[in-house]
TrEMBL record:
Keyword list, A-Z: Methyltransferase, Transferase
UniProt name for this protein: Class I SAM-dependent methyltransferase
Coiled coil: none
UniProt key word Transit peptide: no
Species this protein is from: Maribacter flavus
């Protein structure tokens, strides 16, 4: 992410220099597009899980991986004290230009000294953990940043369906080198510039719940999506 591909693309769109979308390549042998207009969607254009999550926010909010600031700006408009956090310089610049009052440019694990009532990790924000083995580290960082009665709202997906076998007997085919089927490596390309590969985690609800319990957190399903996705709420036990 050192080239800040996402940040450059967001800045281009915000500055009315939109000519193409981000192309993503994944270890699942898939090529896909990340449409830049979608990164600037309003509340009505958001998926239902995001709308529900925003409706469950309370108190002071930290929007982790805030991107162009859609969720933060919506909450700010509703009177919340919200801070947008992102590791992308370009994303934070866009948030400021769009009117977000509080921003932090840093890696999530480096944040220290602040506490919030709600940690918001949408658009599969838990993906920043990269690997399942890192989940404990990130859950404990969430605990450090939460007020005693605080909550974490996050959405993710169970992507086991992507490994369905074409054989008549069904089943799933998962490569032996994969420790957990939800671990995916991505590369992004934008305007002939390519990012370094980065790891991204999709975690099924039961695995998340086991990890949360192990780390002293309660995990509840807030809403099940229609495409193996879900919205979860973490609180202190």
């Amino acid at each position: 992410m050192s080239k800040d591909i996402l940040g450059k693309a967001l800045l281009d769109y915000h500055n009315l220099e939109y000519t193409e979308d981000i192309i993503t390549y994944s270890s699942l042998d898939e090529e896909d597009q990340l449409p830049l207009p979608y990164m600037f969607r309003n509340f009505k254009q958001m998926p239902i899980l995001e709308q529900v999550a925003l409706g469950h926010c309370k108190g002071t909010v930290l929007d982790v991986g805030c991107g162009a600031g859609n969720h933060s700006l919506y909450l700010q408009g509703k009177g919340f004290e919200v801070t947008g956090l992102d590791a992308s310089v370009g994303a934070i610049s866009v948030c400021k230009q769009r009117g977000l009052l509080k921003t932090i440019h840093t890696d999530f694990l480096r944040l220290d000294g602040q506490k919030y009532d709600t940690l918001l990790l949408l658009m599969n924000g838990i993906g920043i953990t990269g690997k399942l083995k890192n989940l404990d580290t990130y859950l404990n960082q969430m605990k450090r940043l939460l007020q005693p009665n605080g909550q974490v709202l996050l959405d993710s997906s169970d992507i086991l369906y992507m490994y369905e076998s074409d054989e008549e007997d069904g089943g799933y085919w998962i490569p032996q080198h994969v420790d957990y089927y939800g671990e995916v490596t991505f590369t992004m390309r934008y305007k002939n510039e390519e990012s370094e590969p980065f790891d991204w985690l999709y975690v099924d609800f039961n695995t998340l719940k086991r990890a949360a319990t192990f780390n002293g957190l309660n995990c509840e399903m807030v809403k099940q999506g229609e495409s193996d996705d879900y919205l979860a709420r973490l609180t202190f036990l």
